[in-house]
């Protein structure tokens, strides 16, 4: 996820010094006050899963963003808690390393920042499956985000672990959590299940008590189904929307208390294959100033960009499947690398009109490093390492099984069968009903044939002799995190058809690619098995020293097509150079071994390798391989961006 995704928030009035009440002082009646005190100190949101984690970051967790937030006189931040990050399997909980929520809360305390927590169970955040664990889909008929007994049982079990651990951190208990969001933009979900929302509200109250402020967040069209009596109602929208109209609508659901825009969009997310999104500084600052003049409370989303490391990116479905890029820079005031941008300075100037800001300069950008070009060496075809990638052996089934059915959560799974007859002329291989979720890399006897892709490319033509091995490597590109949020099963959802023949008798190999990369030693004996034509899924690697203390950097992969990258065993995430817009991957300094130690970089290239298999490390990101595009939020569709114009 993101190195640190954050919002600056000016949400709720300042707490009275020395008081520890269930709500910030004056919360219920501050809507009548437009004076400086109701602006208070403001808040910034940060998501700890989007940092590399304390195992590889020796400095305090999140310190750069916290420092910049304090420089803007912010007093708190929002943070999501992704359920699937902490309960990878039912009843198995992980709060260690980069998953240590409580170390993160402690860092916020040391920075004198309060916390507004968003534990879900659904969080969106462009995060894999919106934070819901994929193991829920092992019950194929489950109805997510509803009062389905199977879903509620899992939610109850999780919150009975999480919320008691949060309880000591509540503000009235001496902690720094001042409010908690229930669900997330539920009004945008098709179910509109009031019983589900009531169940969540009751569960939160039972486990956290009556003194903590609970609230909801929705777009203007979602207020009807997303709000609930007893939970404070907030709204979200962007700079181009009619805030007077939206706040007027909000007043119908929340007659008293502050007007709160809990997600004021400073930028926008990127999808693979679309243009990089930005929002102009004048538009963002104009909207911010107007809201503050109205006496409204504001959270900026995003305040700090970040990264969808590993396999944690989500996806949208807007007519077709749209996976989200590895970078979550978001054109935010603080960049993906934690550096201040001109937008940050402009926002600081706006805030200074309403309250004093700390004197002195903002923290400088972090040191950056350049290196290369470096030559990568071919380690071999993915199929050469199948015994290491799937040491437990394959699973047999007459028809192909989904990732969820074989307990494969992320990454890749290989499907194998054998041609039932000789195919002497190019013959169509296709998967009906858009049954490839999400990309399929097809090989016959180890020779790469091409790609099938969800919503995009449904067929290709191949030849082969009877008994030839047909391998289909399936990539999970990230489960839906917004939109219908229907159960997004991965893999071959339908059996492929060759000509008129339905292919059966499949072997499924759930691949543990990360385990192989972390224990790279098995590959060395197999280096003699290089494919003659390096296309299709292949591994490349090299080692390199860094002679000085190093710095943050950006991995540039010119000429490569699509794949996954690891540095010293850490999964940086996906690259898709050919499709864009993102061309570089952010590499935080703590991932690299400095002062002459050898670093290893490993690529799994899924399609085609450049003639010169090289990489470079740059001192700046390249996030826009085409042109910028500006999005705004339309009041008529609170959750669908509308393209205005390129600039």
TrEMBL record:
Region: Disordered, residue numbers: 20-55
Q: Where is the Glycoside hydrolase 35 catalytic domain?
A: 79-353
Please report a single Pfam family linked to this protein: BetaGal_ABD_1
Example of a GO MF term: beta-galactosidase activity
> What keywords were assigned to this record?
Glycoprotein, Glycosidase, Hydrolase, Signal
The residue ranges of the Beta-galactosidase 1-like first all-beta domain are 400-512
Q: Which InterPro entries match?
A: B-gal_1-like, BetaGal1-like_ABD1, BetaGal_gal-bd, Galactose-bd-like_sf, GH, Gly_Hdrlase_35_cat, Glycoside_Hdrlase_35
Which protein family is it in? Belongs to the glycosyl hydrolase 35 family.
Name of the protein this chain belongs to = Galactosidase beta 1 like
- Which organism does this sequence originate in? Bos indicus x Bos taurus (Hybrid cattle)
């Amino acid at each position: 996820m993101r190195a640190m995704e954050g919002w600056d928030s000016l949400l709720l009035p300042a707490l009275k010094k020395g008081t520890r009440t269930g709500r910030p002082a004056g919360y219920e009646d501050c809507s009548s006050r437009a004076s400086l005190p109701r602006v208070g100190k403001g808040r910034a949101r940060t998501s700890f899963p989007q940092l590399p984690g304390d195992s590889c970051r020796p400095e305090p967790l999140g310190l750069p963003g916290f420092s910049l937030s304090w420089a803007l006189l912010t007093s708190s931040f929002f943070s999501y808690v992704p359920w699937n990050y902490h309960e990878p399997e039912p009843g198995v909980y992980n709060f260690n390393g980069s998953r240590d929520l409580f170390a993160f809360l402690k860092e916020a305390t040391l920075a004198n920042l309060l916390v507004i927590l968003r534990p879900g169970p659904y969080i969106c955040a462009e995060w894999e499956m919106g934070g819901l664990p994929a193991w829920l889909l092992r019950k194929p008929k489950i109805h997510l985000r509803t009062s389905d007994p199977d879903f509620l049982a899992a939610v109850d079990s999780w919150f009975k672990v999480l919320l008691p651990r949060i309880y000591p951190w509540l503000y009235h208990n001496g902690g720094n959590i001042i409010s908690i969001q229930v669900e997330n933009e539920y009004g945008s979900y098709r179910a509109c299940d009031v019983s589900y929302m009531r169940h969540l509200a009751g569960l939160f109250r039972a486990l956290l008590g009556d003194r903590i402020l609970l609230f909801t967040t929705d777009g203007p069209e979602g207020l009807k189904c997303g709000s609930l009596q007893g939970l404070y109602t907030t709204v979200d929208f962007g700079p181009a929307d009619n805030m007077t109209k939206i706040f007027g609508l909000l007043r119908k659901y929340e007659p008293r208390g502050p007007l709160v825009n809990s997600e004021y969009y400073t930028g926008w997310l990127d999808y693979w294959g679309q243009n990089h999104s930005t929002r102009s500084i004048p538009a963002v600052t104009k909207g911010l100033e107007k809201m503050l003049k109205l006496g409204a409370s504001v959270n900026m989303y995003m305040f700090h960009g970040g990264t969808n490391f590993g396999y944690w990116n989500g996806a949208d479905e807007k007519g077709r499947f749209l996976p989200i890029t590895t970078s979550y820079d978001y054109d935010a005031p603080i960049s993906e690398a934690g550096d201040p941008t001109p937008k940050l300075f402009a926002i600081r100037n706006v805030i200074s009109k309403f309250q004093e800001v700390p004197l002195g300069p903002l923290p400088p950008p972090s040191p950056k490093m350049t290196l290369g070009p470096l030559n990568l060496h071919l380690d071999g075809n993915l199929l050469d390492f199948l015994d290491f990638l799937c040491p437990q052996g394959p699973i047999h089934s007459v028809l192909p099984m989904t990732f969820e059915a074989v307990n494969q959560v992320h990454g890749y799974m290989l499907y194998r069968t054998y041609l039932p007859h000789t195919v002497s002329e190019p013959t169509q291989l296709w998967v009906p009903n858009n049954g490839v979720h999400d990309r399929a890399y097809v090989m016959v006897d180890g020779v790469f044939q091409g790609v099938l892709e969800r919503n995009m490319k449904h067929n290709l033509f191949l030849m082969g002799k009877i008994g030839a091995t047909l391998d289909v490597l399936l990539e999970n590109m990230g489960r839906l995190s917004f939109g219908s949020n229907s159960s997004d099963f991965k893999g071959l959802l339908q059996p492929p058809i060759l000509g008129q023949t339905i292919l059966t008798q499949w072997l499924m190999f759930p691949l543990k690619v990360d385990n192989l990369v972390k224990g790279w030693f098995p590959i060395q004996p197999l280096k003699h098995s290089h494919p003659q034509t390096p296309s299709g899924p292949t591994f490349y690697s090299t080692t390199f020293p860094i002679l000085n203390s190093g710095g943050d950097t950006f991995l540039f992969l010119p000429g490569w097509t699509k794949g996954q990258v690891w540095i010293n065993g850490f999964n940086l995430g996906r690259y898709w150079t050919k499709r864009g817009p993102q061309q570089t991957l952010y590499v935080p300094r703590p991932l690299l071994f400095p002062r002459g130690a050898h670093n290893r970089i490993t690529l799994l290239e899924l399609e085609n390798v450049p003639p010169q298999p090289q990489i470079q490390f740059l001192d700046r990101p390249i996030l826009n391989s085409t042109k910028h595009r500006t999005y705004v939020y339309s009041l008529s569709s609170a959750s669908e961006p509308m393209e205005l114009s390129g600039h």
